[in-house]
Design a protein that fits this description.
By secondary structure, the protein is of the alpha/beta class. Helices cover 39% and strands 18% of the residues. A 7-stranded mixed β-sheet has the order 4-12-11-10-7-5-6, sandwiched between helices. Helix 11 runs parallel beside helix 13. It is globular, with a radius of gyration of 22 Å. One of its GO terms (biological process) is L-arginine biosynthetic process.
């Protein structure tokens, strides 16, 4: 039974005002549907920001949660545990990696990756090789180091001097990379698809060029797959749909289907530069999170499931094309698998949040990627009936916003 004294207004009274959550309060979920505290139903195209890749209350994950929860939740890294070792082996079998470090989030995974890159450069080349190259509109987390490396200054402004040795270049601009990456560069960090920056895929030639430049100048190539990883693009990791292999890969979000866990994956040779005590974590790699993540990885790495991601992605793009033919509101639809962005035309620039709010009113949850892009990142196993019904609701929401815009008096 819901507590009538706790409402959306309670957030404004008790929480630090860092977020502006929706007017409704989600209460429970099953598969790709959510019910709020008032009993209203929503079809979920947001996936907890590309996190609940197997939907809500997945029975196999609930089974693992209960089994491991009755055995051991936490032990600390003065010890090890079987679930985390099984998870590491499974991820390494699926990727280029030989070694794994587990944390609690994508930001912490990226923090570890950036620290490792600088440590490798220091031990191999000396104190001057510290430059980290990142890209405009990138997003790598909210720790001070990762938010400084990210290419959105609004997130790092107002907190004092940012760490030195960070350079931001235009995304997909290989000429700019060639002019910048050099002997002082220790690492290049890139998202195969910029998620928060607008769902912008990397040009394959751009990624190949970055790999060549890193090899030429003794720098490490880091792929931030926090959002694109664990099946989101229709491949277990997005790099596997390119002919580029990074030196370090970071992963989180879908890895625990909502249970907080992140990982940094790398090679034996590079991992050797992180010796005992050089980096650490209290909760990272705890047995409960690792057991859940192991089951997530087992289920999502199934080739049939990954094929289903690609088919669902095609279905969503087809639905968006139908809506665009009807309303003419999208200038471009882009992305891979089930990470899709629909950019609004000039007539609706800055109004992505209006569409998001209207969709919620009509019983559909989705995301934005900046003020101009609607973002879709639903469960990778979303039933097609839910997908179809969800787009009927989205169509009604778009009709409402477009109609209200047409009726608004001109200024």
């Amino acid at each position: 039974m819901n507590d009538p004294t706790v409402t959306r207004q309670t957030f404004d009274e008790v929480m630090v005002p860092l977020f502006s959550p929706a007017a409704f309060v989600p209460d429970r979920g099953a598969g790709s549907r959510i019910w709020d505290t008032q009993g209203r139903e929503y079809i979920d195209f947001a996936g907890g920001i590309a996190v609940t890749a197997l939907g809500h209350a997945h029975p196999e994950l609930l089974k693992v949660l209960h089994e491991q929860g009755s055995k051991l939740w936490h032990i600390g890294n003065g010890y090890t545990n079987e679930p985390v070792l099984r998870l590491a082996k499974r991820l390494e079998d699926l990727t280029f990696a030989d070694r794994a470090f587990f944390a609690n989030s994508g930001a912490e995974a990226n923090e570890a990756a950036l620290k490792l890159a600088r440590r490798v450069a220091f031990e191999r080349h000396g104190a001057d090789k510290v430059e980290i190259v990142s890209f405009a509109q990138s997003f790598h987390g909210r720790t001070f180091f990762t938010v400084s490396v990210g290419g959105q200054p609004k997130y790092s402004e107002g907190f004092g001097p940012v760490p030195a040795g960070i350079v931001h270049l235009p995304y997909n601009d290989l000429d700019a990379a060639r002019k910048t990456i050099g002997t002082k560069t220790c690492a290049v960090i890139v998202e195969p698809i910029q998620g928060e920056g607008g769902v912008i895929p990397a040009d394959p030639a751009f990624l190949r060029g970055l790999r060549e430049l890193c090899d030429q100048h003794g720098a490490l190539l880091i792929f931030d797959e926090v959002q694109t990883g664990v099946g989101r693009t229709g491949y277990f990791y997005a790099y596997q749909d390119t002919d580029v292999t990074p030196d370090i890969l970071t992963t989180a979000k879908a890895l625990g289907n909502g249970f907080p866990i992140g990982a940094m994956l790398t090679t034996n040779e590079l991992a050797a530069h992180f010796k005992v005590g050089v980096h650490g974590t209290t909760y990272g790699g705890n047995p409960l999170g690792a057991a859940i993540a192991e089951k997530v990885v087992e289920l999502i790495s199934d080739p049939d499931l990954l094929e289903g991601v690609r088919l669902r992605g095609d279905a969503i793009k087809a639905k968006l094309a139908q809506l665009n033919k009807r309303f003419g509101i999208f200038s471009e639809v882009r992305g891979k698998g089930l990470l899709i962005g629909a950019e609004l035309t000039d007539a609706y620039k800055g109004r992505a949040k209006d569409f998001l709010t209207a969709c919620a009113t009509h019983g559909a949850m989705l995301l934005i990627a900046g003020p101009d892009v609607l973002r879709f990142a639903p469960s990778l196993v979303m039933p097609l009936d839910d997908l179809n019904e969800g787009f009927e609701r989205i169509g009604k929401a778009i009709e409402e916003v477009v109609g209200a815009t047409a009726e608004a008096p001109s200024r």
